Amino acid sequence: xxHHNTRRKKQKLSPESQFRSTLDQCSKTKDLTAAISLYESxxxxxxxxxxxxxxxxxxxxxxSDPETRQPAIEFGFKxxxxxxxxxxxxxxxxxxxxxxxLAAARGDGDYAxxxxxxxxxxxxxxxxxxxxxxxxxxxxxxxxxADKAYEVEEYVExxxxxxxxxxxxxxxxxxxxxxxxxxxxxxxxxxxxTLREVDESTVAIIESWFSGKNAADVSVVSxxxxxxxxxxxxxxxxxxxxxxxxxxxxxxxxxKIASYGQCCACNEQLxxxxxxxxxxxxxxxxxxxxxxxxxxxxxxxxFQDWLEKHSEYETVVDGANIGLYQQxxxxxxxxxxxLDAVVKETHSKSKKWPLVVMHxxxxxxxxxxxxxxxxxxxxxxQGVLYGTPYGSNDDWYWLYAAxxxxxLLVTNDEMRDHIFELIGSNFFSRWKERHQVRYTFTxxxxxxxxxxxxxxxxxxxxxxxxxxxxxxxxxxxESSRTxxxxxxxxxxxxxxxxxxxxxxxxxxxx
Length: 510
Fold this sequence. Notes:
By secondary structure, the chain is an alpha/beta fold. It folds into 3 domains: 2-186, Serine Threonine Protein Phosphatase 5, Tetratricopeptide repeat (Alpha Horseshoe); 187-272 and 453-510, Tetratricopeptide repeat domain (Serine Threonine Protein Phosphatase 5, Tetratricopeptide repeat); 277-430, Rossmann fold, CATH 3.40.50. The radius of gyration is 30 Å and the shape is globular. Helix content is 52%, strand content 11%. Strand 12 and strand 13 (506-507) form a beta hairpin. It has helices at residues 2-10, 15-29, 32-41, 49-60, 66-83, 93-105, 109-117, 128-139, 146-158, 165-177, 181-194, 200-210, 213-217, 225-234, 277-294, 297-309, 319-323, 336-350, 360-367, 370-382, 394-404, 416-421, 425-435, and strands at 218-222, 250-255, 315-318, 355-359, 385-388, 408-410, 436-441, 447-450, 460-461, 467-470, 483-488, 498-503, 506-507. The strands form 3 sheets. It has a 6-stranded mixed sheet, with helices on both faces. The chain has a 4-stranded antiparallel sheet with strand order 2-11-10-9, with helices on one face.
């Protein structure tokens, strides 16, 4: 056996196999010099697309080193131009991404963008990483061109992609450097809508804006407090989107947030941000559409009609989730006692009965128990209980009710299957943070409701015009997180602020 293995090891690899093996090693070690030597020493360097991509990968990973940057750019484009002449050449996403990086590295943002857009020509599914080099190129260095960067952003969004923190930070930076105050405001809000916490490098860009003269010169006029409050409420709280409020210079501090949501630097109260009215309505419609695809249409429509006539609930309760909590023991079953505790506690808090959603089959089963019948009948009389039809999935019913009525939802269900199916998991996670109430029962049977947090981990813009930015970092709990607190040192009351973005006393349309 050993003799056989030794003989196999002595067998020579074919030239193609040897070439590929050496190239794999160069790729693994990102050795540009060895890769160039391999190519130039090959008697017939006709490359497969896989081999070409490996070379381009090595080139694009050699751009950060000043010594290999220029050779990498030259060698990469030499390979591409030499091997892309044929009619049968069809690059994939990896090819175009690597080439776009090389083009951006030599300051040619236009060509990087052209290469990225060619995904359509070649029938390749677009990815953000293919467009990012062009956008970053237009945002910095000698090739900085804000309007071209905005054009890339617009194209990226048109193909269904969404920018992430590096791209948004770059756009914010180029907007600051170009003196485009409205764009600065726009990208601050795009960061707010995209991120839950902000990297220190992005925070530095935000600080550069608020500590600069341009930011001190920009303010808003002719807005009254009612309009600001109305916009804030419509947006779900935490931002109004009407422009930089107040006037004068901004004061920047690093701060902590108390457990109840108050900033320790400026004493302003942060809020638990809800989803906005339009988003919530779309979400309710999507839940209903998905439910009707999976449920008997007439059953769910009947529930919708019933809910329209009974819209006074402030809390929806997932009956099965609570009744079956920690019941996986020999005598365990459905605990009406646990469910009753939740019903009583929620009623105690709001002075309104909750809506408990449960299968009719389970309701009927509980009614057969004489010791529990009176309680269930009382719930039915009080309108506490809605029994979902036989064969239905009660998840759709309690989720729709909670979304449609903008209620709290008492459940420990992680709802991962819903996140998987519903469009916009980022939206759904925000909705859960604001509306889901979790619970525990102690060994003695005591109930503890875990209410939504008092404030949201997200960039917040207050009705007074201050900003609070959560900074990313390794933390043991939220009380130890550092926030950037930005207030106007010469702040004025909301009633005095204005509606037209002005700069140095004149209208600014940038």
